[in-house]
Each structure stands twice: as C-alpha cells, then as structure tokens.
Design goal:
The protein is of the alpha+beta class. It is 30% helix and 29% strand. The chain has a three-stranded antiparallel sheet with strand order 1-2-3. A three-stranded antiparallel sheet has the order 4-5-6. Strand 1 and strand 2 form a beta hairpin. The protein is globular, with a radius of gyration of 17 Å.
C-alpha cells in the first residue's frame, strides 16, 4: 500500500550562535496556533548536504536531483517529514556562519569557550 503524502508550505528560520557553534537551529511552525518545532542540525552536516546525501538516523540532507533545492528529511520514531528547501539561501546562510566562526575553529568560538569553561568549573566543584 502506498504512503499518502501531503504537501504544505511552511516558513522556516535558520539561527546560528557562537555559543553553540557546531549546530544550526532550524525552526518552523506546523500550524498558526502551535508552538514552533525546533531541530538542531550539525552545521557541517547541513553544509555537506548541499552537495551530496548525508546523515543517518533522524536527519538526512541531500540535493534534490530535480531542482536547485535540498531535501531535509526529519524523522521521529516511525514518522518522518521531508522538506524541500531552496539551496542558495542555505548556502548563503552557511557562508555567513563561516565568517563568524570558521569551520574547524568551533571549539575556540568565544561564546562556546565561556559555556565550556563554566560547565567544567561546575563539574570540578561537584567532584
């Protein structure tokens, strides 16, 4: 039996912060009245998904072979949703994040260093 598919247009927002330099927050609303849905996607995973299929498990990203878009598949338990996202705005967004924190330098991002040091301080005081 074939799965039924519903197509819905949604607004989605990408957010990046130096306090969490390894991840991009992907936020969208499924209806006008509900709370937003938020997924944290690895920044490198999103970048690599612009060029080829990446990801295992709950998040898979890859180029759409039929358009200038990428496909982002999100899964929770047996439910999944695939979103078609224009490639260029995502590429532009990732370019801006790389200016803020170059790839490979995430562990030295100022906000991340502060959070890491505070967490290590808490852990060492509990021992």
């Amino acid at each position: 039996m074939a799965e039924s598919q519903a197509y819905v247009s949604i607004a989605a927002f990408l957010h990046y912060t130096q306090r969490d330099p390894y991840a991009v927050r992907f936020r969208f609303w499924l209806d006008s009245f509900g709370d937003p849905v938020e997924w944290y996607i690895g920044r490198e995973l999103l970048r690599d998904g612009l060029l080829h299929l990446v990801g295992e498990g709950d998040v898979q990203i890859g180029p759409d072979q039929n358009s200038a878009a990428i496909l982002i598949r999100l899964r929770v338990d047996e439910h999944s949703s695939t979103m078609t996202v224009p490639r260029q705005p995502v590429a532009d967004f990732l370019h801006r994040t790389a200016k803020a924190v170059p790839y490979g330098c995430e562990s030295q991002a100022p906000g991340f260093v502060d959070l890491r040091d505070a967490a290590l301080e808490r852990l060492s005081s509990e021992i």
